[in-house]
Amino acid sequence: MTIPLSNGNGLNGHALPSQQQQHTLPVVSQQPTPSTSTGIAKILIVGGGPAGIVSLRNFLQDESAEGGKEGLDAVLYERREELGGVWYLDPSTLGLEEKNGYPSNRWPIATPSQLLYPSPSYPALIGNVFPRFLTFSGHPFEKPADQYPTLEETYRYLSSVARPLRNHVRTKRDVRQVWELPYLPALSGEEGALPRSGGWLVHTADLSTNPPTDLYEHFSAISFCPSFTTHPSYPNIPGLAAAMRLAPRKIHHAKWYRTVEPFWRSKKVVVVGNGLSSNDIAAQIVGRRRREWGEEMREGEEQVLRALRHDYVDMFPSLPDARYRDIPHVTRIDLRPSDDASEPSLDITLASGEVVTDVDHLIWGTGYQIGVYDWVNVLAREPTQSDVAALSEAGITLDGDKGWRVESQLNKESLAQATTALESLWVRLTPPARYPTEDKAKSAQALLPTVTTSSPSPEPLDLLQPRRVPHLHSHMMSARNPTLAFGALIISATPFVLADLVSRYIRLVWEAEPSSGKGHILPSTFEERRKDEIVRFHELEKTRADLEAGSADALSGSETDDSRIKPKNVVTVNGTVLPALPPSGLLSFHVLRDQELPLQCRFRNTFLQYKPWLRNLIGLRDEEWDEVEREGHRKSMYSEKKKWLQRRRDEERLHSQEKKTNGSS
Ligand SMILES: Cc1cc2nc3c(=O)[nH]c(=O)nc-3n(C[C@H](O)[C@H](O)[C@H](O)COP(=O)(O)OP(=O)(O)OC[C@H]3O[C@@H](n4cnc5c(N)ncnc54)[C@H](O)[C@@H]3O)c2cc1C
Prior knowledge:
The structure is a single chain. Helices cover about 25% and strands about 15% of the residues. The protein is α/β, with parallel strands linked by helices. The protein has a five-stranded parallel β-sheet with strand order 5-2-1-9-24, with helices on one face. The radius of gyration is 26 Å and the shape is globular. It starts with about 40 loop residues before the first strand and ends with a helix. Bound molecules: flavin-adenine dinucleotide. Flavin-adenine dinucleotide (FAD) binds near residues 50 and 120. Keywords: FAD, Flavoprotein, Oxidoreductase. This is FAD/NAD(P)-binding domain-containing protein.
């Protein structure tokens, strides 16, 4: 076997703005010459939420009658027993969580017979998105009973899209590790549109057996749609890690929230954050109190404390409520031994220096760690003869010019040996998730009586540091090896629509030879393909500078109909003026905000050029894509949701007054 030598581009990284350099990957064969066919024969979609479902539908669609191609050969692996992702709440897992005692922050839940991965949503969830933006092209969303669809209605919609795709879905199939396989000259096929690729070795666990069965397969291309909600995000503040370990019934994350039941009666509840989840959870707690205890706060009742890093943002609607008290963000947690409870007492220190003692529940609505792909191993260098020998030893062999052949039941030990021997061949696509770390000395101290301090600890700035999946074309496909795609990496206000457009674009690229003969879709060089990444760095630098300067531009994506929104670099909480920390989404690499609609239009325009017949589908028609109208309608979702919340509260008020009157008459 002859091993190709490096094409001279070496393993050098790219000159990036200083802050991003830490996430730069080595780059192999940036500009493959000659470009050869990838022979996309078998595609894997990882994850069966909305993005995975619509990707599968779009990949499989037979377009030959319209002058296009037959569908691609694709299969979807989902680790739960049903498709639907966030929108699928299965009663048995809910029951189990209830039995374990809400909230259950053990994830996945291991029972003697199975592994369960509960959805991060809850039965009372009412969406924030208009049905128009939950519509996959050609498959209208049935009119919901109210203005915003419920969890149940959204799940029903997804099921109706997924039903005909059943034969291409494997549930209870957990994708655990992925390795990029090297391209070797023996694989060269016909001249094609994509850079060369040896495809992907995929390790999955079949969770339908007990214990799970390890399986290994080869795929030509992968689209990852595995959810951004896998890893909750917490600030790394002193005492949090110890509190998570020693007081697990008091420290929660929105990911584990299922019901208001464990919280609403408790005396001191702190909800951290004013994003979608934190606002909804806080509203559910005070709503329940209002229904049970009446409009007025009752004797001895304490307000729900809302710990804020920044002012209210209209994208995350909430109503003012006398049952709330806003407090500055939490900078430190201390535990004290407690006689009368199974868990220590919990005190929190705020950015103002104030200490709130005996907190019953501290609920973090601080979002998720986006873009954690440390389980995807990409090539770090060109392979050597001995690498190929080690792969073959492990059961991964070259099958003439057909490509890599992987024995499905690879010997785990020899694979482990091979991957150790080959360690330097691969590098993780991203760093692993970060969780608060426990300082042993501090955690021991934490159990001692609290020493209150008036000097606040450092800001939890770690929430704001940019992390990203590096070197992407159009934010969704590896610029180096486009057989690696991300169907759901961009965090969107309209994720259903975006996933539909992204997957149609991915298909276009993977078809490699567009039937219309209009040429290649991807730019021919690595640098051109990753142009959007560089543009994004500059946007983030500008946002950061604007935020530092306290400029209102930094929040230009928000409407300002809410009198509480005052874009500025301070936040006033209870009369204390504090430096504000911006909403973490503003500096998050994969949250494109105002740049998202232009990108959506670019995807749509590109595939319509090659597939004009798609223009007739509901969801893709020209009249639905007037940018000004579309963006205006999207933004109105938030002010409308606020009005909707107000209407619902008024109705509840009226209802309880009527009940009272009827009761007294
Ligand atoms: C509480 C909450 C409320 C929300 N409200 C709204 C709303 O009102 N409107 C809206 O549009 N969006 C809302 N969202 C956003 C929501 O994430 C998207 O609507 C949508 O579900 C994203 O789809 P997805 O397919 O990318 O991810 P998900 O829906 O998260 O689905 C991902 C799937 O991948 C599977 N998976 C993950 N890893 C693996 C693996 N290694 N192997 C196999 N399978 C795997 C998971 O089990 C899951 O089924 C909300 C999210 C949350 C958490």
